[in-house]
Amino acid sequence: MNESLAVENNVEKSQNLRLKTLRSRKFQDPLLSAQITNSTTVIFA
Amino acid sequence: MRVLLLQPPLLPAAEVTPPLGLTTLASWLMARGHEPRILDLDLEVRERDSASEDRYVPLFERALDDFAPDVCAVTSMYSNSLQAEHLMRAAKRRRPDLVTVAGGAHFGALGTASLRRLPELDFAIQGEGEPALSGLLDALAAGSSWDSVPSLCYRENGEIRTSPAAAQIDLATLPPMWSTLGEALDIERYARTIQPGSPRRVIYIEAGRGCPFACTFCATAPFWRRQFRVKPAEKIVDEIRFLHEEHGYDSFMLVHDLLTVSPKFMAQFCDAMLEAKLPVEWMANSRTDIRLKGLLPKMKAAGCWKLFFGIESASERIQKVVDKHLDPKSAETTVAELAQHGISCTCSFVLGQPDERADEISESITLGARLKMLGADLVQFHRLRMWPPAPITKSPLPVDFDLDSLRIEYPFVQVPEDHVQAILADNDFFSGYFVPETIAGSPAQMAQVEMFFHHAVSLAPYTVAALGRLTHGGMVSAFYEALAEVGPLHREQLSWDATDDPLANWRALRPLFRSLIAHADLSEEAKALVQGIFGYEEWRMHFLCGMPTPEPAAAGGNNWSAFLCPLDMPQAIERLRAGEELTDDLLESRILILAREASGGIASYELDTDQLPELTRPDSELVRELSAVN
Model's pTM, two decimal places? Predict the structure, then answer.
């Protein structure tokens, strides 16, 4: 593996880690989704 | 006979749907050989984008000249009874030979009083209109006596007489609707009022009539003699199919006072809808104590997107006073259950019973906010009004008139002074424009409660729920102090139209909201909690509307915004939803982030406050991650 590829991989790993961190910090506010999905409730679409 | 069926202007809303009572009458009359034409002045004034008070009478006069009817029959809800009266007077001025008839909710309940008050009115129909109006037209056409026509008020030798009420019709005998209307009604004109980008193309259709319950404030249950009737399920589905396929409607309000009272009918209707496989949705009226749990999956699959519940009050005492007898706890369970099945609801409260206390109203508003959190799409607060033949109108009660409250439901936002004087001069006939006195507040205060909390619960339910919970019934009295400090809301500042920008309402409410929190009888810590929740809701509201917040965000990018929240908001939301205490330990700062995903959804994150510097560096990994959220 050349050096630049290794750096790139490390950045990617770090980003994945951060993304996982961000994802793990999700919180739920039901009103956020309620206000969005209310406008698209069509069945049998 | 040629009969002009007349709908006076009704509501200052942009979208208009056909007047259901008149549409049903039109098809009934056509099937009996008459020639009806509907003149919907509500549509006419909106379509001309000139919803001004003085336009509708000339429009009516022109229609009289063009159509040259033998009979003009006007309907009226309570909110437009004065307009109906203006039209009857104009009719006789223009065409003294014209036969005038009035019916519908207002005249149907006040037939004798209508003839006594209005010399220009020849007949009033009490209760169900179909057999009475067709019977009257038949008699007029034959030149015979109308004294055998049922449900009719008329004059004879200077005296007002009333014929016996007709038996209520079997709704299965109603002729096919909509497809048979021909020139009587142009449905496309209504379809064109639907706003561009509107999420739903909504129309009202009649599923049936009559509620067996006897709530004291309700006028429609006694109007239909509390007899539950439904149209055959297949007929309703036929109407839905026609309106969808021919006019593109996709959302149907199944008008019935209490459709779900018969689970057997609901199952039949759902089966018929499932078989029809139409890409549409529908909503219906229900009660939170009607157990639909086993039916909910089928209802959802058949297109039910919403139910309407009258909750009326959180107070068990008031539930007894109004003869509703709902368990307020059942409301929470039912709304949460519906949400689990992907069905939303509207929850309506009636405020201002004569002996209802301000703390009881506070509890109702708090319950409303909780229901919004648990999945209600809309929560409405209405003033108690005196609508005959509601049981509460049978006994004399001291009543008040307040203009702001009237203007919420009046056909025009601006009410001319001569209208006010006409209403004030006859509070028996125009009782629907009046509200009973209540110990909960003055007329002006109650009008403000109605206007403010209707919108406050819709836009900031966590704040209202937290305030309600922490003030233990003191929210409304704190609101009165805020009113004294900030001054009242004005009707023109607020919109009840779902298609309008909600931020305009937010801006109107904001000064009162802040003052209300300041005046609430709370410990310093509790006040900090409520202020933090309000700050969060203000930030969320602005983010959802794509607008910058009044207080600058802690950080932000193209698709995201960060808010430095002085409390553990995620935990507060959980506790509010679970009905648990809000305690001082929640006062722990968090960074909250909302990010708009490529799909259009919103992602929400919480971070520790020490990550704020990273959020303010455009090149940080965290910022890059947020910008790429999808």
Answer: 0.91
